[in-house]
UniProtKB/TrEMBL annotation:
Gene3D superfamilies: Bifunctional nuclease domain (3.10.690.10). It holds the Pfam family BFN_dom. Residues 10-142 form the BFN domain. The lineage of its organism: Bacteria, Pseudomonadati, Acidobacteriota, Thermoanaerobaculia, Thermoanaerobaculales. This is Bifunctional nuclease family protein. One of its GO terms (molecular function) is nuclease activity. PROSITE patterns: BFN.
Length: 166
């Protein structure tokens, strides 16, 4: 299990976009650091990719989607998503948590799949943090162009970079 044992602060990441892995025909969410020098690919499910894509594109659906419903439930209960933290890469599975803040400012940590945590973070405009030890094991090279990124992904196999197992 890869858990940060030093005191390095988490790395702030943003969603760069979604691509399809042609080898596995699976969606991959791409996170990038603020300097666009590090990219973290996470293989996710189709439903979660759809939810992330709808939020990235600003598409409003006639009825709440699952992640919209969770966001509404949290708000009704007086909680908000403070940030998410992708903290572990264990046997090629990313593990995340969602940090909630309630109306009394108390915090609560909830275990989550990274894809669900990312979908919620986008809706809540919350930070996406990644443990440096996870980046050391799963980040792909320094590149900021979509064409280069797509080329790298087309050559990768899911098991090379931490396939998110369903």
């Amino acid at each position: 299990m890869s858990v940060n044992t030093d005191t390095s602060p988490p790395v702030l990441m943003t969603v760069r976009g979604l691509v399809m892995d042609p080898a596995s025909n699976s969606p991959v969410v791409i996170l990038e650091n603020s300097e666009s020098t590090a990219f973290l690919p996470i293989w996710i499910g189709v439903c979660e990719a759809n939810s992330i894509a709808l939020e990235i594109e600003g598409v409003e659906t006639p009825r709440p989607m699952t992640h919209d419903l969770v966001q509404d439930l949290l708000a009704t209960a007086g909680c908000s998503v403070d940030h998410i933290f992708i903290h572990t890469l264990d046997e090629n599975v990313f593990i995340a948590s969602i940090q909630l803040r309630d109306s009394s400012a108390a915090t609560h940590q909830v275990d989550s799949r990274p894809s669900d945590a990312i979908a919620l973070a986008l809706r809540a405009k919350a930070e996406i943090l990644v443990d440096p030890s996870v980046l050391e094991r799963a980040v792909i090279g320094e590149s900021s162009t979509e064409e280069t990124l797509r080329s790298i992904l087309e050559k990768m196999r899911p098991e090379d970079m931490g396939e998110y197992e369903m």
